[in-house]
């Protein structure tokens, strides 16, 4: 099936489920973040993912590709930015702020990536895409300030706390991951790139979490946390990546990327349904503005290796 042929209903269902799985990562992440430190939580997620991805690499590609020096450095950079840094900030932020708000802030990933690409690669964005960036940032401001933009100018601390700051770092980390993945995609298949990136990230997270492991009362960790980690590693990472990449192969990157606009919608809905988080008018208004801004900005093809499996 070529990217121009008519998509199959089953594939459309899979891509919708991908958005649902990624939306669910905010609920699962919030559950984990309330019981485990950020580095340990991220390590648990990617321990599950690494085991499954290595199995997929052996099943589909006959094993792990041997890397040259440049590929070692590139995949290490992927692991440091999109796996380690992003997920440490992701879980740390969820310990401070509701899952629904986090999902809306994460929707700014394409905006940060576009801006960073314009700086690093001198990419011309054009007036329409700059307008989209401005709209998305304005919408995010409405969400973060709960609709009180003017009040925040007088007292920034009433809207911006540790959670928002951590998510800003996470979004920057993911933008760096996306740009580095362009280089990885030149010589590595998506499965090889994300598997090696995950293994690097797992190593970084293990080293960072060693000081946390001994202080955790493991017997008191509820089963919901273990279930959430399994969900994050299996469905929120591996299954979502494989189905997303299947969409890239059959529909093309741009048409597949459209489904990621559903992620904050599912994130807010699941947060309200499962965690009983309130849905504020400012979230709906700001989220809609941000989504339209992201739509205007995200009008370029993405590399299959840039699938947001690590970040969502």
TrEMBL record:
Residues 15-144, 163-298 form the EamA domain. InterPro entries: AA-Vitamin_Transporters, EamA_dom, EmrE-like. The keyword Cell wall biogenesis/degradation does not apply. The keyword Nucleotide-binding does not apply. It is a multi-pass membrane protein. Signal peptide: none annotated. Its main location: membrane. It is found in: Membrane. It comes from the Bacteria. The chain crosses the membrane at residues 43-60, 72-97, 103-121, 128-145, 165-181, 188-211, 223-245, 257-274, 280-297. Keywords: Membrane, Transmembrane, Transmembrane helix. Belongs to the EamA transporter family. This is DMT family transporter. The lineage of its organism: Bacteria, Pseudomonadati, Pseudomonadota, Betaproteobacteria, Burkholderiales.
């Amino acid at each position: 099936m070529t990217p121009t042929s008519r998509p199959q209903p089953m594939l459309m269902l899979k891509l919708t489920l991908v958005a649902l799985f990624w939306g669910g990562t905010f609920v699962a992440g919030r559950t984990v973040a309330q019981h485990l430190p950020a580095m340990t939580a991220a390590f648990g997620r990617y321990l599950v993912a690494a085991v499954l991805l290595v199995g997929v690499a052996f099943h589909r590609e006959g094993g792990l590709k041997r890397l040259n020096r440049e590929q070692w450095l590139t995949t290490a950079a992927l692991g440091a930015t999109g796996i380690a840094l992003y997920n440490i900030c992701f879980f740390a932020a969820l310990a401070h702020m509701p899952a629904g708000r986090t999902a809306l802030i994460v929707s700014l990933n394409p905006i940060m990536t576009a801006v960073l690409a314009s700086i690093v690669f001198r990419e011309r964005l054009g007036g329409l895409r700059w307008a989209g960036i401005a709209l998305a940032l304005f919408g995010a401001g409405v969400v973060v300030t709960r609709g009180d933009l003017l009040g925040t100018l007088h007292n920034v601390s009433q809207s911006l706390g540790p959670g928002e700051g951590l998510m800003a770092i996470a979004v920057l980390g993911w933008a760096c991951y996306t740009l580095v993945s362009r280089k990885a995609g030149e010589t590595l298949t998506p499965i090889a790139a994300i598997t090696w990136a995950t293994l690097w990230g797992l190593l970084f997270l293990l080293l960072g979490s060693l000081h946390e492991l001994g202080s955790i009362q493991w017997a008191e960790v509820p089963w919901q946390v273990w279930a959430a980690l399994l969900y994050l590693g299996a469905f929120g990472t591996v299954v979502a990546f494989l189905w997303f990449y299947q969409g890239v192969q059959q529909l093309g990157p741009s048409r597949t990327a459209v489904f990621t606009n559903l992620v904050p919608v599912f994130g807010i809905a699941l947060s309200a349904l499962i965690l009983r988080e309130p849905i504020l008018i400012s979230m709906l208004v700001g989220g809609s503005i941000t989504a339209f801004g992201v739509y205007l900005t995200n009008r370029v093809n993405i590399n299959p290796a840039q699938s947001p499996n690590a970040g969502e």
